[in-house]
Structure formats: structure tokens, C-alpha cells
Amino acid sequence: MTRRSSARSRAVSEEFDPISGLLAIGVILGSLSLSLPFLWTLTVMVAGMTIVFFINRWLREQRLQRLRRQQLLDLSPSEFEQRVALLLEDLGWKQVTVRGGSGDRGVDITAERDGLRFIIQCKRYTKPVGPNYVRDLVGALQIQQADRAILVATSAFTRQSQLEARGQRVELWDDRILLQRIDEAERLRAAQQPRRSQESTLLYAGALGLNLVLAGFALLFGGLPISHAEAQIEQASFLGVTANAPASNPIVAEAAPATATPRPTATPRPTRTPQPAATPQPTPTPTPIYPTATVFNGGNVRAEPTLKGTVLDQIHAYETVFLLGRSADGVWIRIINPRQQEGWVHRTLLTLDPAIEAALPVITPERQGAGR
């Protein structure tokens, strides 16, 4: 009980609520506004909101990194196999095929890299993987006549497993290596999309420029940030000097002689022009409202709900997409990305609310055009 409560308190302390941060800054600025001019209060407010925004952005990225392994454990075995296949494809592997299921003979995925044929076995375990799985994979390597084999797990491998794989054509990918491969795929995708780095640079530069412009206006039109009390003292001193100054003799302008005002003539009344009848306006067609989801991990947008589907575009982490429907097996979700590209993505790439996911309509490949 103590461990669970401490873990919960640690998780809460690691999260940062931007609304609470803005409220705290509002309280601080409320007290400062009593002693600072308006322009300087506005400048400090914008700077505070900028700090809250970037702190929340950084903490969110750190929290997503910690949740990656937990989200891999939340996948079903078949979904974990699909996720590994997507990872291999993002890393540039060819001929990636999922073979998991009954009768797979210890082979979940087959793929090719650098002209070599690989067989991959996936284990979604929380406990260390024993050496018997390594021996089974070595046997499957001989039966399948593949060049190399990989054993992928969401946990660690025992010392005996590592000794069993030594000298064999078997690679062991534990949870640490798996997360490194996911990060590598993200870097490759970022290298293919230089626009993302440009957008981040423009965001930081825009925020900095906005704060500098506001500070410049405050300094130009408001002067140095002196308190209202000092400003009132200076104003009272100025008014006192003005009131004590001798009044100048007023100059009275000589009145001009009055002239006779001509009598107004009768203005003819205009004839009434008939108003045209109002043209009825067409009733606007309501725009459909789709549910949304946040991209957890970047990937490809495909024309068909399969790994062999044509790649139409990509989605990137932290983007928001519109949800149109799901495949019959629930593994693929049809979406519209921020670049207005419609297509299928694997459900493990999105952070989905269970209630929203359950309410999505089932779309078959023949009906996929009717989603928009």
C-alpha cells in the first residue's frame, strides 16, 4: 500500500498542469499590476505564459518517453507483433511480413535487411526471458533456412539466455534495445521531414520575437517600469507647477457684424422607390464533426489497412488527427492527418480513448471513400 501511494504521489509530482501554472502566474501578475504600468504588466504576462508553455512541452516529452515501455506492455500479443513489424519497416527493412498465430512454428515476423533473410520472434513479457526460447528460435532458424534470427522482448534476458545465444546467429533485443530502435526510427523519420525542425525553430523564434517586441513597446511608450505611486507623485508635481504659473491675458476676438439669414426654401419630397424582394439564402450544409486523437508515435498513412498498403503520407508524434472509423478487426484506424491526407494507420500509433474507439464505425476497404 505504501509503495502504491508513493508511486502515485511521484507520478502526480512529475506531471505539470499548465492551467495551475497560468493561475499562479495570474496571481503574481495581479499583485505586480498594482505597482507596474499596463504595458509592463502585459509584457511580464506574455513572458510567463511562454515559460509555462515550454516547460509543459518539455515535461510532456519526458513523460511520453517513460510511458513507451508501459504502453508496449498494454498491447495484446498480436498487436505487439504488428508494432514490431511497423518498427522494422520504419528502420528501412524490406519484405516485412507478420506470420504470427497458430502454426507459426516459432516465427512471428519475416523480413529482409542488407540481402539477409531474418526471422523474428516477439515476447511481450514482464519477467526475464529464459534460455528455452533462444533454443526454440535456433531450431526455427534451421527449419526456416533463414540467415539470422531476432528475439524481441519487452523485458530483459536471463544470463543463461545470453550464454545460449552466444555464438549463434541470434540477436537478443531486450526492452532497452527495443526503445533505442524506436528512437532511431523517430530520428530517421525526422531526417526525412526537415520541415518539423524548421517549424520548431520558427516556434521558438516567434515566441522570443513576440516577447522582445512587447518589451520594446513597453519601454518605448511606458518608459522604465516605475510604480503607479511614483508616477502619481510626478504628475501631481507637474500639475502643481502649472497651477502656480501666471495666467496670460486672454485675447477676445472682435465679433463680426451679423448678416441677414436667408429664408429656407421648400425642399421637394422624394418619390418612394419600391424595395426589391429579399432573395432567399441557401441553407448551409452542416460540416461533419469527427472525434480526434493524439499521435503517440509517428508512422505511415496507407491507402489500405495492411502493411503492404501504399504509403500516402506520414503522421508524427504529438500531432492531432481526425478519426473516421476502424477496420473490422480493430487493428487499423482510418484518419485525416493535419495535411488533410486521409488513410489508414495502425492503432498502436495513436493514443485512443476506449469509449471513442468503441464508437468508431467499421469501415471496409470498399467503403473507405465514404468516410469524408
TrEMBL record:
GO BP terms: DNA restriction-modification system
Transmembrane segments: 12-32, 38-59, 202-224
Keywords, in A-Z order: Membrane, Transmembrane, Transmembrane helix
GO molecular function term, any single one: restriction endodeoxyribonuclease activity
Taxonomic superkingdom: Bacteria
Disordered as annotated region, ranges: 253-287
Domain SH3b: residue ranges: 290-354
Low complexity bias spans: 255-264
InterPro entries for the chain: Restrct_endonuc-II-like, Restrct_endonuc_IV_Mrr, SH3-like_bac-type, tRNA_endonuc-like_dom_sf, Type_IV_Methyl-Rstrct_Enzyme
One Pfam family per UniProt: Mrr_cat
UniProt feature, compositional bias: Pro residues: 265-287
Protein name: SH3b domain-containing protein
Organism listed in the record: Chloroflexus islandicus
